[in-house]
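Table S4 entry, Tyrosine--tRNA ligase.
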Amino acid sequence: MTEATIHQNPATSPVHDEAIAHALAVTTRGVQELLPADDWVKKLQKSHRTGQPLRIKLGLDPTAPDIHLGHTVVLNKMRQLQDLGHTVIFLIGDFTGRIGDPSGRNSTRPPLTEEQIQANAQTYYQQAGRVLDLDKAEIRYNSEWSNRLHAAEMIALASKYTVARMMERDDFHKRFHSGQSISIHEFLYPLMQGYDSVELKADLELGGTDQKFNLLMGRHLQEEYGQEPQCILTMPLLVGLDGVDKMSKSKHNYIGITEEANTMFAKVLSISDDLMWDWYPLLSFRSLQDIATLKQEVAQGRNPKDAKVLLAKEITARFHSAAAADAAEQDFIHRSKGGIPDEIPEITLQGAPLGIGVLLKSAGLAASTGEGNRLIDGGGVRVDGTVISDRGLKLEAGTYVIQVGKRKFARVSLQAG
């Protein structure tokens, strides 16, 4: 992970007060950019002097039904700032979700239905509570004010930014010069996200590095509307399980925060050793000194798996419990030795004798018969502990423990057709 860019002039913004210095250290841990840091220090000093908490904003569009670990990078930062006594605003973009965020896109994002947005918004609210103290947070929906804007107000808002500056945005610039279409409504997205900051009178807005343009728009529009402009803080994008792309449901490289404990633990252990050190400062609540010490121990010969187990248990305990994390570790050890978990799905199927490929599909262990055959070819299928290599195998009536890969099991009772 690159070092955070903190736009601050130490000569003009000394931080003498211990409480302010601590707050600044909490703010900047693991961040990519904080700007302008001079302004943030002034806001912290004013808050400390007056006792008035700062307003910290994070907006998420409910574009998918679940929150994954990538989302928690910024949610963790929000919780750290909340624990300092500031007011965090978890903004659910039920209006902007209808437009679709073009950030990082090379094509127009398909719109969601109102029903999809409302269902996802409810899930986001419930899952955010696993990180934030919702009793002390503001939960807002940007439809509160966006739905009230009439045509004249939308035109007035659009007049506060130029097309030339909008086209400086990297994704718009690339799409324009490659001949890909850009719909007019996509220009509205950063304007509406920025207007959220005006309505909420935000002091700081958080987002991933891909959100920088939108965050700066909020700062610009607050100035246009005569408000003190917000500072912006960007967090690095969490690389997914594949070690290549950012964590994303569409890339199938994610860990959902509602996944069951054993799966969550095993998925964390599956990441590479190098990726583990990128995840640690973004997902662990250990001190940076503790992480540095752990990394040094590994460099000096300690098994990197030890460090990965610590991270997997910490994350699993956060979203389940310490007991569940301990049980997940034991389950992983048991499976790695070829053991069968204590609890596995029990399925009854008809049609014996039944081909192994059809059985895998019917038991939900493979998406299709073809995938089942490919798993067999790869040596990834076991019946009662024996690796199966024959696609043409037919199982007679009886009960079998079927294993696919390291983590999928089912006890199948096969009955005559």
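DSSP finds 18 helices and 14 strands in the chain.
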